[in-house]
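Re: [ENG-882] Designed sequences occasionally contain unexpected residues at chain ends

Forwarding the minimal case from QA. Structure tokens:
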């Protein structure tokens, strides 16, 4: 098997850099490699081999009737075919010349008008232009069923874009049997996200079309993700590292498609007992980072009476997450972790986002692939009832990422599940709805009422005991919508966990913001530039804020900037912490991302084990274990060094890590 090697990608980048100096700042999404059957010539220098093609008759080798086409380039495939067919015709005594030079390819008989196609089928012009470029005059055939089923205009792949109609056409008429077949037929998953956003969407259509002879869904998805990983791995750098983190968080952390039973060595700071906590009036703690770890740190420090300022440039991985708070099975929670989660969950409850769960009784939630995700703590709207219930799975027409028939079929082994698709008022001709589109529509009273009546009739007619929706039951009014429908239908209503961006994740981030305000934490929407220190004491955190720079005085500082998505780690000709250049561990023999990867996507990738080195209290430390600053802590994904391969997310770990740092910082470390 031909595989692109990182050294080859580096060679190409270095060569291109001479003509395009900014090439390394571009987002290289994929590398490809292949084998070219060049014609053998005497000599050792492969660069001098001819690239011309040749039709070889092996009769002189004792194999009459056996021809080979060697050499050449793909762009000349029709010329090669013509010469080969002419040679075959000569051998068969039928010397009529091949007509390939005069015959149009299927669909090339005429040039379809993309504008007319877009108007006729209600497509965006971009999608129509793409269809015409790939299918020519047959583009209308590909879209044929859209007139009867307008929802088939929905994009299954947003990057290209590939419509559901095109995917189904490929399965029915172009022999596509796997997700990888669909990639080759339609370019599904070949854009910037490299399959992140379209895999769940496409596999649902594939299962519906192919039926029971299809490979198990999990194997289909694993194979597709592995094929995509082969091309991403050698060019894994820059912005693509953040995309990779999101992909692993979704398909391994949420969908659980990775390798179970992996080992992980937690940082020592997660195991160090805390001394008795005491009040910290008069101390000022500056926290950098607004995700779960940063908020937990701020709330913990504030709970001891410290003045707290939280600096965040933008929302990071938390806002994009599924909302589930996992805890790894191989790490028994200590008293600090239990206190940290209790503190955060209580704050979320007061902020209007209740969670359910417990350390000894993990809950289950459904996913968009119809799998069951186990987590220690889940949003109250996502925690499913006991298995075996009669479950109505509701999908929304035009919402491509949640296909109710597919999810119901996938859950049928655990629930008596049946699907129902509803059209939201005002969206009967709409397609390509996002979860946020649907969530905001359902917050309109008239939409909530009409949809509630339609689903309620189905619940009563089918005798269902529970109803499962995608994660779209409002952005701000989730509790009210659920309560109204549960009262009207007499059965519990649940939401599945979704992909990214996720409504669950956005609700969590907004609830964290409300919790900060309620606790009296000052939030500064700025970018940390560094620290001002005297010796080994941080005196202030420098920030760019409202088009000006300022120093925020600090008795202690906490760095909780996340990993690649949050910007806590960056690739600048090697991995580094980009603001303070904090020391990293787990780099192995090199700092380049591709040196820290393995061939199998579902394996633990050492790249995601890279973390800031800390002492036992969680302070960034040098190679001898001495803290760089006595009053600077690091927390969250920045120090955890844990991959998602075992199916566990980082949420609860980030909370525990952040709260520890907050309590330590508020009391002044070992003081």
């Amino acid at each position: 098997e031909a595989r692109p090697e990182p050294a080859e990608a580096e060679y190409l980048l270095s060569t291109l850099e001479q003509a395009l100096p900014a090439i390394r700042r571009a987002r290289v999404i994929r590398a490809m490699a292949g084998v070219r059957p060049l014609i053998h010539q005497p000599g050792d220098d492969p660069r001098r081999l001819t690239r011309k093609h040749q039709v070889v008759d092996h009769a002189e080798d004792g194999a009459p009737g056996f021809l080979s086409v060697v050499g050449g380039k793909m762009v000349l495939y029709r010329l090669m075919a013509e010469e080969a067919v002419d040679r075959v015709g000569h051998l068969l005594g039928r010397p009529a010349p091949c007509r390939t030079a005069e015959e149009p390819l299927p669909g090339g008989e005429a040039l379809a008008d993309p504008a007319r196609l877009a108007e006729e089928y209600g497509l965006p012009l971009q999608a129509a232009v793409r269809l015409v470029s790939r299918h020519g005059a047959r583009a209308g055939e590909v879209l044929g069923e859209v007139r009867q089923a307008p929802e088939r205009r929905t994009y299954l792949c947003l990057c290209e874009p590939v419509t559901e109609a095109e995917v189904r056409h490929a399965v029915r008429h172009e022999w596509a049997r796997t997700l990888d077949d669909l990639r080759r037929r339609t370019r599904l998953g070949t854009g910037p996200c490299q399959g992140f956003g379209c895999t769940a969407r496409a596999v649902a259509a594939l299962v519906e079309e192919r039926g029971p002879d299809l490979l198990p869904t999990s194997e289909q998805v694993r194979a597709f993700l592995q094929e995509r990983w082969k091309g991403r791995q050698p060019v894994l750098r820059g912005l693509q590292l953040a995309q990779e983190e999101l992909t692993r968080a979704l398909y391994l952390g949420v969908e659980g498609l990775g390798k179970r039973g992996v080992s992980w060595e937690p940082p020592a700071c997660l195991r160090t007992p805390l001394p008795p906590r005491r009040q910290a009036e008069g101390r000022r703690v500056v926290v950098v980072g607004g995700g779960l770890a940063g908020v937990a740190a701020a709330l913990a420090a504030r709970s001891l009476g410290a003045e707290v300022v939280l600096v965040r440039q933008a929302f990071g991985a938390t806002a994009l997450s599924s909302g589930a708070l996992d805890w790894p099975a191989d790490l028994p929670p200590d008293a600090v972790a239990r206190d940290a989660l209790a503190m955060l969950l209580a704050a979320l409850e007061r902020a209007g986002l209740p969670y359910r769960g417990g350390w000894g009784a993990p809950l289950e939630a459904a996913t968009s692939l119809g799998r069951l995700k186990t987590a220690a703590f889940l949003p109250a709207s996502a925690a499913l009832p006991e298995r075996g219930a009669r479950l109505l799975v509701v999908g929304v027409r035009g919402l491509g990422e949640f296909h109710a028939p597919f999810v119901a079929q996938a859950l049928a082994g655990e629930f008596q599940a049946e699907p129902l698709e509803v059209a939201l008022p005002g969206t009967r001709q709409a397609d390509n709805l996002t979860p946020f589109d649907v969530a905001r529509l359902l917050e309109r009273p008239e939409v909530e009422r009409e949809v509630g009546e339609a689903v309620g009739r189905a619940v009563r007619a089918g005798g269902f005991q529970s109803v499962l929706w995608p994660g779209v039951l409002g952005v701000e009014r989730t509790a009210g919508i659920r309560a109204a429908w549960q009262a009207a239908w007499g059965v519990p209503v649940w939401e599945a966990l979704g992909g990214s961006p996720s409504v669950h994740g956005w609700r969590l981030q907004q609830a964290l913001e409300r919790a900060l305000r309620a606790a009296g934490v000052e939030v500064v929407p700025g970018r940390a530039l560094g620290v001002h220190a005297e010796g080994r004491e941080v005196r202030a955190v420098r920030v760019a804020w409202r088009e000006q720079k300022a120093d925020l005085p600090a008795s202690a500082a906490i760095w909780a900037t996340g990993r690649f998505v949050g910007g806590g780690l960056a690739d600048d000709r090697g991995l580094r912490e980009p603001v303070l250049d904090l020391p990293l561990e787990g780099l192995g023999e090199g700092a380049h991302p591709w040196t820290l990867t393995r061939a199998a996507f579902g394996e633990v990738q050492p790249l995601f084990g890279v973390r800031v080195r800390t002492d036992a209290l969680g302070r960034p430390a040098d190679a001898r274990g001495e803290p760089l600053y006595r009053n600077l802590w690091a927390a969250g994904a920045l120090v955890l060094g844990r991959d998602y391969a075992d199916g566990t997310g980082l949420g609860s770990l980030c909370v525990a890590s952040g709260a520890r740092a907050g309590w330590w910082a508020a009391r002044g470390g070992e003081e």
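QA comment: On inspection the terminal residues look reasonable. Residues 368 and 402 are 6 Å apart (CA to CA). Proposing we downgrade this to a documentation issue.
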